[in-house]
Amino acid sequence: MRSVSLLICLLLAGCATKYQDMGFTGGVSAQQMTANTFRIVARGNGYTGQTQVSDYAMLKAAETTKQHGATHFLVISASDASSQGQIVTGGTAQTHFVGNTAYTNYTPAQVHNFVRPGQDTYIRIISVKPGVTPAQGAISADEIIQFVGSRVQRG
Predict the structure, then answer these.
(1) Closest-CA residue to 42 (of 52, 64, 32, 57)
(2) What is the distance in angstroms between the CA of the first residue and the CA of the last residue of the chain?
(3) Using CA atoms, how far apart are residues 31 and 38, in angstroms rounded to an integer?
(4) Residue 110 is assigned to a structural domain of this protein
(5) Calpha distance 70→64 (Å, rounded)
(6) Cβ contacts of 119 within 8 Å, gap of 6 or more
(7) Tens of pLDDT along the chain (155 residues)?
(8) Which helix (H) or strand (E) holds 6?
């Protein structure tokens, strides 16, 4: 029974969440809040690391910036939106007889804790003209796409 439960969990969870639109196993989305402010939502499953989710949030922020005709973005705020859960696999008992004696092997139920990393980030997009120094803290969308985008596995 335990192996069946584990197999179901593996089929449902699969592997680490890839960079993709938000879905059952996680992903990223951008929601427009004002004309130049966006909420970036990034979620992973139990096999996804927090660093990966942070990369997803930054890459989505950069792509959103470019899609809206801007060159840079400012991170207004970022918060941890991780969640925790448990999977409990049932115990098993097997009894066999040797003569008139019964022997029982018992495997207790097991609890598997997991963390689904998440991050909510609010950004403000801005356009910086060539040759002009961007505002302090402004992040180049092109550079994030170049450097973070090269290490992100897409779904």
Answers:
(1) 57
(2) 32
(3) 5
(4) no
(5) 9
(6) 40, 41, 42, 50, 53, 54, 56, 57, 78, 79, 80, 81, 82
(7) 455 454 444 444 458 889 999 988 899 999 999 999 999 999 999 899 999 999 999 999 999 999 999 999 999 999 999 999 998 999 999 999 999 999 999 999 999 999 999 999 999 999 999 999 999 999 999 999 999 999 988 87
(8) helix 2-13
0.90 exceeded by pTM:
no
Q: Which helix (H) or strand (E) element contains residue 84?
A: strand 83-89
Number of domains in the chain: 1
Backbone angles phi, psi at 111, to 5 degrees: -110, 125
Pairwise CA distance, residues 105 & 21, whole Å: 47
Task: Assign 63 to helix, strand or coil.
Answer: helix
> What is the token pair recorded at 30?
């951008």
CA dist 133 and 104 (Å) reads: 75
Residue 107 domain flag: no
Residue type, 2: R
Helix (H) or strand (E) holding 4: helix 2-13
Q: 106 lies in a domain?
A: no
Q: Answer yes or no: is 16 within a domain.
A: yes
Task: State the residue range of the domain holding 60.
Answer: 2-87+116-151
